[in-house]
Amino acid sequence: MERALVLLHGFPFEGSYWQPQAEGLSAACRVLAPDLRGFGADRRALPTALTMEQLADDVLADMDAAGVKRATIGGLSMGGYVAMALAARSPERVDALVLCNTRATADDAEGRAAREKTALDALEHGPQVIARAMLPKLLSEQSQAQRPELVRRIESMIARQRPEAIAAASRGMALRPDRFSLLRGWTKPALVITGAHDTLMPLPTSVAMRDAMPGSRLIVLPDAAHLSSAENPAAFNQALLDFMNTYQ
Length: 248
Ligand code: MLT
What we know:
Layout: E1 4-8, H1 19-25, E2 30-32, H2 52-65, E3 71-76, H3 78-89, E4 94-100, H4 109-125, H5 127-138, H6 141-146, H7 148-159, H8 163-174, H9 180-184, E5 190-195, H10 203-212, E6 217-221, H11 228-231, H12 233-244
Parallel strand pairs: 1-2, 1-3, 3-4, 4-5, 5-6
The chain binds D-malate.
D-malate (MLT) is lined by residues 10-11, 77-78, 173, 200.
């Protein structure tokens, strides 16, 4: 059976976020990078709060539709929350977990309040405002100063998302549970990836996930912040290939 890799995008992006991985990895495996509910071209109905469990169920349905029974499931940031929700729900569909620039803790009260503010900002002022607020935290200072095409690609991807999807996902992230008990019981292969300059998910967050998962590895990519796969796709893709070659 052809090996499959499912890549889940962060907030508030879309499946095409993973274009450098789809291009770089599709010779080695089948790559699925779906638009999560409400993002990109997806038009499934949006609840007020889009939970990570709902998104995980959607991804399982996407896998069914694509005839993919099991896959390596990777997610970046919010995509990582969805990957963990999927692994908790249907571990038998997961060959291995790849958790990128994400965290296993739940939000605290301050974090949940910030989610509601993001939701209201998106609904009242539109995605462009969200893009402007998020951009400085997503890319390294070097990327922001020296890679105008990447900055434009990221900014325009956020700016074209629907305010309702941004609001629903923001509220859904506020409801996610702590996932450390899942990670402590995870015995299949696992890889944690982050960017050396990620300030949204500082290194100790990734170290804690690596330490929780028996036998997992942590890779810290140079020249990358929160959007590590977009900022350093060559190193990101190589890390994924090397990892997948350890068990398939
Ligand atoms: C993301 O990149 O998906 C978000 O920063 C995740 C979050 O806000 O927790």
